[in-house]
Amino acid sequence: MATIDSPLPKPYKPPVVAPGHTPGTVTDKISSVVLRRTPKWWYVGFGISFSILMMFLFCVTYLFAKGVGIWGINQPVGWGFDIINFVWWIGIGHAGTLISAILLLLRQEWRTSINRFAEAMTLFAVACAGMYPVLHLGRPWLAYWLFPYPNTMGMWPQFRSPLIWDVFAVSTYATVSALFWYVGLIPDLATLRDRTRNRAMKIAYGFGAMGWRGSAAHWHNYETAYLLLAGLATPLVISVHTVVSFDFAVGQVPGWHATIFPPYFVAGAIYAGFAMVLTLAIPLRAAFHLEDFITTRHLQNMAKVMLATGLIVVYGYMAELFFGWYSGNIYERFMLMNRATGPYRFHWFALLLCNAVVPQLLWLRRFRTSPFWLFVISMFVSVGMWLERFIIIVTSLHRDFLPSSWGLYKGTIWDWGTFIGTIGLFLSLIFLFIRFLPMISIFEMRTIVPGGTEGGEYTTAPEQEPGISTEQGAVP
Amino acid sequence: MKRPPIYGLMAEFHDSDELIEAAYRVREAGYTRLDAYTPYPIEAVAEATGHHHSKLPLIVLIGGIVGALAGYGLQYWAAVIEYPLNVGGRPLHSWPAFIVPTFEMTILFAALSAVFGMFFLNGLPQPYHPVFNVPRFALASRDRYFLLIDARDPLFDREGTRRFLADLNPTEVNEVEH
After folding, report:
1. CA–CA separation, A103 vs A274, rounded Å?
2. In this complex, how many residue pairs, one in chain A and one in chain B, have their CB atoms less than 8 Å apart?
3. Helices A81-97 and A371-390, packing angle to 10 deg
């Protein structure tokens, strides 16, 4: 890899890994998280999450017994918490793919420390999201009717409907995310197979690693596959939230029928997703003492992405307001007035506070570098993005064209139970993941620390590793 | 071909530069059946051992094209031939609406070909491989670099090759049992 040596001194950039690490030490440090005894707090955390998951099971069982009438949805608001939560969760997933695929293609080395658990987060968020449309079906046991297959009814799905596009987009996204995550895990499962002393674990990791041995020929195919997957996942992730926005934008309801929706939804998805990555990364880094790998620079970079995408979202709000007014359409104009002054005005102002005002603190370095404040701001963004979907769905539906069919919407206890229940599912999966799988990609970390096992001099770094020269050359 | 008494000879190195150097010297000496094992992907090692061509991009391209044709074909067949639905007199072959599923199917098939193509080219899953018989090979997934010469190589000679490998500055040379 030829790097052009500039005669000018390079600007200082904090390193992506704390100094002093070698391939050996990163391997030991990250695999020890999985291989050592389970810490007590893990049982507490997993216990609480799993209890919430059981509550979800209860809510879903009752739903299957009684039907969607237990939820707050009715005419005119037929899409409620189920679709809000679907969009919210699937949006959260987008940051994982952005980090793992797009930042890989852009050679952003700092992604290496966070891509694994961001991808896991994607997978679990998509699992949570994917359940809602099915629960919403009314007859969820017939969910397979969504897929095109030859059947005795002689019917086929309506391919001109955005809802069918959604089936294709979300199921492709779930499959590709799972593949990408698993492919990334293979060499690390091999590492764990070689490290663990527990026979059962050795067999389990051995199955997962499929006999991976790190052969040069294998690595070459592997790298090619990984890069191609990244290249495929990049347009895919953009398409998924675009298609989700089509669910709204293709409809004619005021507040939905807007061309700004696809880019605005994609930016919002990344915004919410980075907030969730920070929400997870900050406690994990403290709990497992991973400050060497998830440095302040990572937190700062994520904060910057959050700020940038947040501003795009704010631009989306302004575009919505402007085009609603500029359209001259009385229904569009009424919808905007109704948002700001109608029964959901407090939701709307809370949304602006969470998504547009509070994140402006990220302009200040003090907030970008403070884990505590980043955590707080991320919480605001997560709440704000949930409110955004609430506003888009509920305020548009509850008062549309005909005043005689106006109504109000409120989630019932079952709506809230199901929503909080999926958070339980998400956290349970996260807890299982951090316990049994390496939450940072070990083999990729090896590539960004100085090569060799002796000393770890920067000058001995083999020059074939892309990026080493630029990254280490930066340390004065 | 008669099965040789051992699988091959394996030299262990402390850092990747030594491994690359050694791999070039092994190939200069005329050996053709060699492989290197590293804890992380190193482009120069693939080059030094002659494993730097991959058929994978072609497989993925074919997978993507098949996915696109299958996706579009499915929709055309369902919407135009098998189950034509007249929606307000609009054309049955409403191709702009078919773009999204076609795109998703392209990505899906290409991604599946990338992963399963990689497994196929690498011969995975592979429940048994002789290299794991060398106890120190466990370090190949940590921070050591290994070079293997296969016993089926025409130039392979149990003693001669061993001496040759020992000259390449390895930390150890081990015989790999079958």
Report:
1. 13
2. 214
3. 140
H/E run at residue B8: strand B8-13
Q: Is residue A11 part of a domain?
A: no
- Name residues 7-36 of chain A within 8 A of B (Cβ): 22-24, 27-28
Confidence of residue A282 (pLDDT cuts 50, 70, 90): very high
* B43 vs A156, A229, A464: nearest CB: A464
Q: pLDDT tens digit string along A56-87?
A: 999 999 999 999 999 999 888 999 999 999 99
CB-CB contact of A185 with B20 (8 Å): no
With cut-offs at 50, 70 and 90, classify the pLDDT of residue A3: low
Residues 6+ apart with CB under 8 A from A397: A76, A77, A78, A79, A253, A409
Chain A environment of B57 (Cβ under 8 Å): 224, 228
Q: Do A213 and B132 touch (CB under 8 A)?
A: yes
| Residue A79 burial (CB count, 10 A) | 20
HSE at residue A270, side-chain half, CA atoms within 13 A, is 28
Task: Provide the shortest C-alpha distance from residue B36 to chain A (in Å).
Answer: 5
- Looking at the domain assignment, is residue A2 inside a domain? no
CATH number of the domain to which A422 belongs: 1.20.1630.10
Q: How many residues make up chain A in this entry? A: 476
Of B39, B101, B112, which has the smallest distance from its Cβ to A443's Cβ?
B39
pLDDT tens for B116-131 read 999 999 988 888 888 8
pLDDT at residue number B110 = 96
In this prediction the pTM is 0.88
Instruction: Tell me which residue range forms the domain holding A262.
Output: 23-147+157-468
Q: Residue A423 to residues A128, A378, A380, A382, B96: CA-CA distances in angstroms?
A: 8, 16, 16, 12, 37
Residue A134: CB partners within 8 Å, gap ≥ 6? Answer: A140, A143
User: pLDDT by residue (tens digit) across B131-172?
Assistant: 888 888 888 888 888 988 888 888 888 888 888 888 888 888
A464 contacts in chain B (CB < 8 Å): 16, 20, 42-45
CB B142 to CB A451 under 8 A? no
The number of domains in chain A is: 1
The three-point CA angle A322-A324-A326 to 5° equals 65
Question: What integer pLDDT is reported at residue B164 of this predicted model?
Answer: 84
